[in-house]
Amino acid sequence: MARYKLAKPLEAFRAGDQPGQLRLELATLDGTPVSLEGIVSATAELVTPAGVESDPPVVVDGDELVLGLLEPLVEAGLYELELVVAGAASSIAVEPAPLVVEAKRDGWHTLASARGQWADAPQRDISLYTFLAGAREQCVEYAPELEAGARVPLSWQQAQLMQARNCWNAAKSDPATGGMGGEDLIFRPYPMDQTVRYLLRPKRVIGAIA
Known about the structure:
Helix content: 10-25%
Number of domains: 2
CATH architecture of the largest domain: Sandwich
CATH superfamily of the largest domain: Immunoglobulins
CATH topology of the largest domain: Immunoglobulin-like
Shape: elongated
Number of helices: 4
């Protein structure tokens, strides 16, 4: 069976957003634009981060698919969109596409705030989100527990960004990737350096000044 992919990545949303209608174009796996002439129908499946599946409506409109995400995206995390387009005699699957849904502002970095401070941040939302989320998990694991309702300290946000950058740079130089440094890198936990640890657990000076 031939396979297609989305010509452009899905844009990121925030938890609670209701995207509405998204117009999608398809391409072959090597990036060649696809004409939908002869395509008579399409189906879609959206899987939430918790694994809950739904079947949003999708119709063919010329050389575009019009996908209706009519319900709010309640859960933050990585969703997965699967599409199948069908002609008179055969069906063609579309490569699963990730959909980033960011949490409401909680003190940790967003895609926008990270890019504002990280000039060489990954350009793809999925890549940046993955490394920010992985670094956040590492920071939460190492940092002391916050009191209920307390806001994330600015130093923790700084630590998250530094750790995300360290993990990204380590992945780019990993021999397993051939040192290519592309955008399709897998997040692997990287040991926290001393600066990151101090941002999460500052050392307290014990003793009195005479």
